[in-house]
């Protein structure tokens, strides 16, 4: 058994975007935060102040970068020290990107059904399958975490990535029905060792309970 010190991971989904509100699939399109998303990111940064965070890794997409920058501002980490990692990007959705859920259902009803059923090896044209996403996320997290034994790191990513982290940590199949939430800027805590991921806490939103508007983000 490995004696490597566990890595504390705070994994977060980016703040809200206008496309989240519109139920429009972003995938790997580069959409930034809306005003609510910027507020959420600031509250997240404040909540992580004093947490001993040592490193921030983020998807290179604007909505994640903006969230990571807010975390850095409150945790004493230099903005230029934020590490961009394409392995933390959202699942590629190919032709679905830029379309709303309703548009997808109207244009590609059979593919929409496969998507909602989470068929493991199915992907929209030009996109990734759940199994491909799982492999990418597992490889990325192991590669990053192995560099920081005994430290506390943040991973700033997207709903699809966070969903897969939960599945990996809890042994859920890629096509298991989702019973957990993926809120914008919720705090999700994990431990990593060379043996794998362990879930510590999920969907902490206490820092978001007071603010200009309280309705749930999608």
Explain the overall architecture.
By secondary structure, this protein is of the alpha/beta class. The chain has one domain (7-208): Rossmann fold (3-Layer(aba) Sandwich), CATH 3.40.50. 34% of the residues lie in helices and 16% in strands. The chain has 7 helices and 6 strands. It has helices at residues 18-21, 35-48, 62-75, 101-107, 109-116, 130-145, 159-170; strands at residues 7-13, 55-58, 83-84, 152-157, 187-193, 196-204. A hairpin with a 2-residue loop joins strand 5 and strand 6 (196-204). It is globular. The model is unreliable at 212-218 (pLDDT under 50).
Secondary structure elements and their pairing?
Blueprint: E1 7-13, H1 18-21, H2 35-48, E2 55-58, H3 62-75, E3 83-84, H4 101-107, H5 109-116, H6 130-145, E4 152-157, H7 159-170, E5 187-193, E6 196-204
Parallel strand pairs: 1-4, 2-3, 2-4
Antiparallel strand pairs: 1-5, 5-6
The backbone outline, from C-alpha atoms, is globular
Work out the count of structural domains. Answer: 1
Q: Classify the secondary structure makeup into a structural class.
A: alpha/beta
Please write the CATH class name.
Alpha Beta
Helical content class:
25-40%
Radius of gyration of CA atoms, rounded to a whole number:
17 Å
Described by its quaternary structure, the protein is single chain
Q: In CATH terms, what is the architecture?
A: 3-Layer(aba) Sandwich
* Biggest sheet character: 6 strands, mixed
- Which strand order do you get reading across the main beta sheet? 3-2-4-1-5-6
**Helix and strand element order:** EHHEHEHHHEHEE
Instruction: Calculate the terminal CA-CA distance, rounded to whole Å.
Output: 41 Å
Instruction: Report the uncertain regions.
Output: 212-218
CATH fold description: Rossmann fold
Q: Summarize model confidence as the mean pLDDT.
A: 95
Strand content: 15-25%
The CATH superfamily bears the name Phosphoglycerate mutase-like
Count the DSSP helices: 7
Total strand segments: 6
